[in-house]
Amino acid sequence: QVQLVESGGxxxxxxxxxxxxxxxxxxxxxxSTWAWYRQAPGKQRELVAxxxxxxxxxxxxxVKGRFTISRDNAKSTxxxxxxxxxxxxxxxxxxxxxxxxxxxxxxxxxxx
Length: 112
Description:
Layout: E1 3-7, E2 11-12, E3 18-25, E4 34-39, E5 46-51, E6 58-59, E7 67-72, E8 77-82, E9 91-97, E10 101-102, E11 106-110
Parallel strand pairs: 2-11
Antiparallel strand pairs: 1-3, 3-8, 4-5, 4-9, 5-6, 7-8, 9-10, 9-11
């Protein structure tokens, strides 16, 4: 059974950068679809970015132009590069593999 482990969450100042990673343990067959979601306190979990097995990456309007999703298939890992972060980016960030397997999340806090 595949398990996902996120890392890279931290306290960062507004305008700063952070890179999140999500690594899968266990074998993944073929090219997968990965996604990053986030959930802020009192809010629903929302899609941040998706990198499909084929086709173009998708970003939410709130992060477009600031965040970049990428993958390393050899390492079964997906990344989320977060630039020019704002306090509104504060949330627990989760990765999702093939629409089925969730990670446990990593906390990102943007504050001065």
